Hints:
Elements: E1 9-16, E2 19-26, E3 31-35, H1 36-42, H2 51-59, E4 63-66, E5 75-79, E6 84-87, H3 94-102, E7 106-109, E8 112-116, E9 122-123, H4 130-134, E10 138-141
Amino acid sequence: MDFYSTKRISAEFEERDDKPGMAITYQDGYKSWCPMDVFDRDYQPVTAMSFGHAVAALKVGQRVCRQGWNGKGMWLSLSGDGVRRVEADSFWSKNNAEFAREQGGHAPVLPCITMKTASGEILMGWLASQTDILADDWMIVD
Length: 142
């Protein structure tokens, strides 16, 4: 059976049996060693991630951005981790509030990716461009 994993690790160069590799420490403290060729193939620095790894970081509560955005203070975040029940009076849109009232006073709201813009607003429902999806310059914002 095959598996795919996305995880955040810390790593330092270490030779074992005259072979270059990386000593890996997982977030739970578990330690292992990986040959350099396997490490280079399977791991990306948190400053040069694929879009898929950026989405995985969003799902565990991290903020992410493209490297070119960083100077502007822009970042993405995931709004919620599942469907939320929102009361009618909490909706900004009168149409959404009306729908919620028709549904018994509340409506389910799905999570979305939001963006903190360069001008300081939160954009609800950010969508990735083709360039964003194919880029390998995504990074975690500390």
